[in-house]
Design brief:
Number of strands: 27
Shape: globular
Helix content: 25-40%
Number of helices: 11
Radius of gyration: 24 Å
Largest sheet: 13 strands, antiparallel
């Protein structure tokens, strides 16, 4: 009852406050005070320090300020912000159509046997089902009730069950567009020379240029994110007729430092990150709390990686369609005041998020558990060990084998692995429902990959509520997305290693052994790479603008000819029909209750109960 009353008050506060703010802005009188950062999601319990992996209790969020995680790194590491857009590509092919809107890339996928494809004219419709098959155009599972329309000129549009567009393919421009459940739009363009441009909401994105070194293919990405530019390197690994792009460290640390970053510390170490006043920390305070003490560096690195991911997720959430940089006070311009238009968009954003958080219990984020954080820390420890081995090969001037440290190689051990999301993507559950998976969310996956597999089932371990995939949900994840999650973790671990080396012997951290503080040594392939693309910001902006026209043309193309629509099932359902047949006939349900083998689909005038994938009864 208390929770309900609290939410009711929050709802009223959000509506009244936002209305007042919008009215003030429209009258040309923006408030004189700085706009507050969003509060922590009110539907979730208050944040508490996470249970520490060792003894003792020390508040890790307060204390002296330190470098913001993932924003600025020390040593010889690149100076950059949180990794963004990473999920925009994983598997690529030689064809111009080598990106997809949902954060995955094309490569070798074929329509699965469970996907219904109809029509023999200029366009066809592909209808998703509860056992999602992979689309041959967008190379991601088709959600329940989803539809794909294909024109004779190769253009394609995928819509969700509610009729909204999710994906667009424009073969003329080599462009794919994805409208995410989170509100993000990702535009991916592949040029004939395999230069790739990815543009996302808020002016974020990257430009990647291919090059070769010692007979191996590499990609050099120049990222642009909220006013910061930085670069990364990726090796290209043949996989199922396409390529996976695997993060390749641009520099390696002394072997002794990897030993320091791997071995436990003599005693648990308290550390003050200085995040207490950071807007992202308050906003996600009910979902995440840092360890109070650290018995080993991998626990410290785990908090670094998770915090950097959540800080990036927050920047994405507040950036909207404005490409201007986001500062610690994200809605203020250089004059420390808000324009009327910015105030209106900010007020609406705040109202939407407060109302969303107060609307229903299901929107509350489940706090990230100590077990999940430990699993992340264990995964990071293994990653540090792998990078140490890779550094020794580099020191011996040995080229790594194709696929070294790829997700396919990682999963060959048939063990469970934990991955932290580094970009926004949309996934499909085992029931065919679509859900968002964003930066800072965590999933568990186990291999090995089956021959010809383009997706792998995974279990969600941590998510932030709302439209995001529920904790414990089984989701189909494209291999390309898994690779980008692995890339993100390794990138952030490298940033954390730079921060750890810079601060060893300071702020309570144990000192590294002699020689471990030496400068990182650049990788040979990085030294031979073309320079970062100085025009990345401009190219990202140009493609974002071109996407509006591309989407209009693609929609017009698929609308120009009739279609034998497989989803037009006449609205007739019967006992014994599959979930796919029901959703084809009736469309997406208003509600799905997933009880494992038993599922209940609710429609405005009926409930349909499925047992083991077929209709058991109709109520």
């Amino acid at each position: 009852m208390q929770v309900s009353r609290t939410r009711s008050l929050l709802w009223c506060f959000a509506v009244a406050g936002a209305t007042l703010l919008i009215s003030t802005a429209q009258a040309g009188e923006p408030p004189k005070k700085s706009a507050p950062a969003p509060a922590a999601r009110p539907a979730a319990p208050a944040a508490r320090p996470a249970a520490g992996p060792g003894a003792g209790a020390h508040p890790a969020a307060g204390g002296a300020p330190s470098t913001h995680p993932g924003i600025t790194t020390g040593g010889a590491a690149a100076n950059h912000g949180p990794t963004t857009s990473g999920g925009a590509h994983g598997i690529t092919t030689a064809s111009p159509h080598s990106t997809t809107g949902s954060g995955n890339s094309a490569g070798g996928s074929k329509l699965g046997a469970n996907t219904a494809k109809a029509g023999t004219g200029n366009r066809t419709a592909v209808v998703g089902n509860a056992h999602p098959a992979v689309s041959s155009t967008f190379h991601t599972p088709v959600p329940a009730g989803g539809r794909e329309l294909h024109a004779a000129n190769g253009a394609a549009v995928r819509t969700r069950a509610d009729g909204s567009r999710s994906d667009i393919h424009d073969p003329k421009r080599g462009m794919d567009i994805h409208h995410g459940l989170s509100g993000n739009r990702r535009v991916s363009v592949e040029r004939p020379d395999h230069t790739r441009i990815v543009a996302e909401r808020g002016g974020r994105g990257y430009v990647q240029h291919p090059y070769a070194f010692h007979g191996h293919d590499f990609g050099h990405r120049t990222f642009y994110d909220h006013g910061r530019a930085y670069d990364r390197f990726y090796g290209r690994y043949p996989y199922h007729g396409g390529f996976l792009e695997v993060y390749a460290p641009a520099r390696f640390y002394p072997v002794g430092f990897y030993g320091y970053a791997y071995a436990p510390w003599a005693a648990p170490v308290p550390y003050a990150w200085g995040w207490g006043a950071a807007p992202w920390y308050g906003y996600y305070g009910a979902f995440y709390a840092p360890y109070p003490v650290y018995p080993a560096p991998n626990y410290w690195l785990a908090d670094f990686v998770i915090a950097a991911s959540l800080a990036a997720a927050y920047e994405v959430a507040v950036s909207g369609d404005d490409a201007s940089p986001v500062s610690v006070a994200p809605w203020l311009d250089d004059s420390r005041r808000l324009s009327a238009s910015r105030w209106v968009s900010t007020s609406r954003w705040l109202a939407d998020h407060l109302i969303e958080a107060a609307a229903a219990d299901t929107l509350a984020a489940t706090p990230m558990s100590a077990d999940v954080k430990k699993a992340v820390a264990d995964e990071i420890k293994a990653a540090v060990e792998r990078e140490r081995d890779q550094s020794q090969s580099a020191a011996a001037k040995e080229d790594g084998a194709p696929g070294q440290n790829s997700i396919a190689q990682l999963l060959d051990d048939a063990q469970s692995h934990v991955l932290v999301a580094g970009s926004d993507t949309d996934l499909t559950t085992s029931s065919g429902a679509e859900c968002a998976f964003s930066q800072g969310d965590v999933l568990k996956v186990a291999g090995p990959l089956a021959d010809g597999a383009d997706t792998l089932n995974a279990t969600v371990l941590a998510s932030k509520g709302g439209k995001e995939c529920a904790v414990a949900a089984t989701v189909a994840v494209p291999v390309s997305d898994l690779q980008e999650m692995e890339n993100h973790m390794r990138e952030q671990v490298d940033d954390g290693l730079a921060e750890l080396q810079k601060n060893q012997g300071k702020k309570g951290l144990p000192a590294a052994p002699a020689g471990a503080d030496g400068a990182p040594v650049p990788s040979a392939f990085a030294a031979a790479a073309p320079p970062p693309d100085a025009s990345a910001k401009t190219q990202i902006s140009q493609q974002a603008s071109a996407a509006d026209q591309a989407e209009s043309e693609a929609v017009a193309s698929v609308s120009a000819a009739p279609v034998d629509d497989a989803s037009a099932g006449g609205g007739v359902v019967a006992v014994g029909q599959s979930i796919a047949a029901v959703t084809a006939a009736l469309g997406a349900p208003t509600k799905i209750i997933d009880l494992g083998a038993k599922k209940i689909y609710t429609y405005p005038d009926k409930k349909i109960v499925f047992s083991n994938g077929v209709v058991d009864k109709i109520e």
